[in-house]
Amino acid sequence: MKRILIADDHDLVRETLADYIRNAGEFSVDQASNLDESLDLIQKNGTYDLVLLDYKMPGMTLPEGLLQTLETNADHPVAIISGTASPDVARRALATGAAGFLPKTIAPETLISAVRHLLGGGVYAPQQFLESDRNDGQNPNLTPREMDVLRGICEGKANKEIARDLDVQEVTIKLHVKTLSRKLQARNRTHAAMIARDIDLI
Asked: Which residues are modified to 4-aspartylphosphate (predicted)?
């Protein structure tokens, strides 16, 4: 079973990505919340078959943090994950030696395919993203009520609970979830929470 390390300071994002990968049934996953913890785990447990580093977590810088992880993880691949980095940052990471760049907007099945590709010695970099401008989701322009709903989602509350907290009908909350998800370019409410945390909305 291939060993993977995911390093991200947002618990929800990290655990969601870890669950996606574990559910494939082919990988074991360890987690870290910052660069120093990542390096400590590599030194303690030995090199990982793949390390996924969040671009914005504490201690992480380009190119220093990436180069340090590449050196510590010996000849095994290290890829960058981010929901906020621009295509230019992705290109810099790849030029520095990253084996790949995975946007956090990536679909679960695409994530697994990317992980397999990286483990097989390939380089993963979505061409469409690299050639695009910075994601419009950086400035979602959510209304105050949409922000209230988003906070509830990030706290793990169901639509019914959020509706009760805000003293509105559940159907109204569903509409807000649909609208804010569209603005954030999120596939579902969990994905919306991941993106919101990653771009420091919440």
From this structure: 54
